[in-house]
């Protein structure tokens, strides 16, 4: 090979190396851009607005979805007064009952909870957390205390004491679930780690990590009840992980809070056996259970 040929060959390899370097840099930038993209959490029918999932046509003000929706994606229903919004229809799910052993698996920390077996009889349970719209009927009848502030009709009721939550369930011919009933609804007879299964905690399945990540930042409210059908149990019960944490009441009268909320940041907060301090907070809601007649 002549000296001229060697120079051409060297220049060719230099060009190739430069091109590869530029391509690698572009790939790194692309990956970085994708890493900064907002996690998929609102599905295809609702729109991501700041730390909320709002109906088409709505905006966000002070952390709430505001304005008249252009439409409410099925099965949500449009409510116009007193505050416009989309509401998941009131429905109940039948739980056949049975027994299940709850506790850590080989990769869960044994310090979190000891394994124990619980058994429940058949019952019905609300498909979603009790919404502001549903609760307002009890207020209108003078049997429930008014909420402290106006809220979107489809959001879970939060901030109530366990006594107030109990009054609403009594008004609805039900009661608060016991811890065993709540956990059985979430875990099923197979002992799922999460309501939908034993893995796959992602933002499109549960409303969590909205206050300071990993799903959003600056969130100050739960999302609409029933927003994440991918996170439902096989029977169709929604929001047993995240959104609003939920009151339970043992047969002996001991309260507890379960399920994690939109503020939860880790998987441990959302597993079916997780508990939180039993106190009324603005991220604690509830659902009711009903007897089988």
What does this structure look like?
The protein is α+β, with helices and mostly antiparallel strands. It folds into two domains: 1-37; 91-290, Alpha-Beta Complex (paralog of FGE (formylglycine-generating enzyme)), CATH 3.90.1580. The chain has five helices and 15 strands. The strands form six sheets. Strands 13-12-11-14 form a four-stranded mixed β-sheet, with no helix packed on it. Strands 7-10-15 form a three-stranded antiparallel β-sheet, with no helix packed on it. Strands 1-2 form a two-stranded antiparallel ribbon. Strand 5 and strand 6 (85-87) form a beta hairpin. The longest helix has 34 residues, at 3-36.
Mean pLDDT figure? 86
Q: Which class best fits the helix and strand makeup?
A: alpha+beta
Number of helical runs?
A: 5
- Kindly provide the radius of gyration, computed on alpha-carbon positions and rounded to a whole number of angstroms: 24 Å
Please summarize the sheet with the most strands: 4 strands, mixed
What is the straight-line distance between the termini? 95 Å
What overall form do the CA principal axes indicate? globular
Helical fraction equals 10-25%
